[in-house]
Amino acid sequence: MSALLTRLWHSRNGGPAAEFTLILPVLTLFLLGMIDVGRLMWTWNQAEKATQAGARWAVVTNLVAPGIGTFDFVGQSGMTQGDIVPASAYGIVDCTQPASTVTCSCRSGSTCPGGMSLTPGTTGAAAFAAIYQRMRTIMPQLTTANVKVSYVPSGLGFAGDPSGSNVAPIVTVQIQNATFTPLVLTLFRTSFALPNFTSSLTLEDGAGTYAN
Prior knowledge:
7 strands, 35% helix, two-stranded antiparallel ribbon
């Protein structure tokens, strides 16, 4: 019996199993890390494509801030019919939907002329919803709070344009405050913030509800 116990004590047959048990957690973390890198790249690509699609939709459909497209600028800063509308004629307008209501306002430090209605109303709210839904077809995890649509003066357009399209701002669609949760941190319910993603195009017709 003592000889048997001695052989068992000095046996090395279970060594590989013990070593594998020790290394398994490290291998698991390494595997999950590789998967997370792929997931992050996929999410990053989704965000970039979603902003591009959102911007394309925004420039050929109704403006979220309707007053930008209807304000004729005649009489503003001495402008007369046919004068080029300078980029300084109005400020950057940001439109967001942090909760249930879409709001548009001149960015801090910018000035928009009196009479330029920025209240989205029914048409503007529907325009924002259409942009958001288009983006969600590419990035389903988006919420309305992640999307911002901005209208940046470009210096394009003419005061009193009979067509009603007095200016053609640069439309920027942005994904903001998005997060990513790695698999290795899922148990800890920990996420980290992604950078903002933006895409910009110059406004085309700014009217209609559907983009081809």
